[in-house]
Amino acid sequence: MLKIWGRANSANVKKVLWAAEELGLPYERIDAGGAFGIVGTPEYRAMNPMGQVPVLQDGDLTLFESNVIVRYLAARHGAGALWIAEPADRALAEIWMDWNHVVGGAIRDALVGLLRTPPEKRDPAAIARSIGETARLAAIADAALATRPWLSGAHFGVGDIPFGSYAHVWLNLPIERPDHPHLADWYARLLRRPAYAKVVATPLS
Ligand SMILES: N[C@@H](CCC(=O)N[C@@H](CS)C(=O)NCC(=O)O)C(=O)O
């Protein structure tokens, strides 16, 4: 059975859980990272020298980097589902996987500041900058979703997973945010996917 290391409230761990759920793959999730620690131990660092979550173990194979894990699961198990066989179509979808790293960096101060930092210790300027930058990126995704139903193209696929995980954070932070109708419609369709509802669209923490 697959072993997925990482706390369930991490947007990067959620990508991997979501992919496994979409593909109907059985897995065991082991809490690690944040308050659970573990990521600093030599045993964990041997799996991921960055000391971050997630890590996937599939038999003798150990992988870190969430988007790599999503691609691996989709390539191995997702024919006709998450995986996109045509290289050009897949590359167009994968743009939104790699692009999402920028979102991960942009939203971090708002996420950590608003959800995991007591009010008196928050840095309002950093939070405001983070919200402004994430709003700019959300507008880019909104414009893309005005031209196609899914970030992956005509069908849901690997390209929707990374930003799909972060979009749940963005759209549920207790903040004012610009209205992005195409993004909102895409998010509503993601919420109707049982796998997304189960492991991604959980209360933020
Ligand atoms: N590029 C890495 C980033 C992983 C990452 O930033 N993970 C965060 C959680 S979202 C982490 O491990 N933080 C430290 C911790 O949870 O202890 C990936 O996509 O897997």
What general form does the structure show? Answer: globular
Give the beta-strand count.
Answer: 4
Strand percentage, roughly? 5-15%
Low-pLDDT segments, ≥5 res: none
Biggest sheet layout? 4 strands, mixed
- The top-level CATH class of the largest domain is Mainly Alpha
Structural class: alpha+beta
Q: Which whole number gives the mean pLDDT? A: 97
Please report the distance between the alpha carbons of the first and last residues.
28 Å
Q: What fold name goes in the CATH topology slot of the largest domain? A: Glutathione S-transferase Yfyf (Class Pi), Chain A, domain 2
Q: Can you tell me the CATH architecture of the largest domain?
A: Up-down Bundle
Q: Can you walk through the features of this model?
A:
This protein is α+β, with helices and mostly antiparallel strands and 205 residues long. It folds into 2 domains: 2-77, Glutaredoxin; 87-197, Glutathione S-transferase Yfyf (Class Pi), Chain A, domain 2. The chain contains 8 helices and 4 strands, in the order βαβαββαααααα. The protein has a 4-stranded mixed β-sheet, covered by helices on one side. Strand 3 and strand 4 (61-64) form a beta hairpin. Helix 1 (11-22) packs parallel to helix 3 and helix 1 (11-22) crosses helix 6 (161-172). The radius of gyration is 17 Å and the shape is globular. It starts with a strand and ends in a 6-residue tail after the last helix. The model has no long low-confidence stretch (mean pLDDT 97). Bound molecules: glutathione. Residues 10-12, 33-34, 39, 52-54, 65-67 line the site of glutathione.
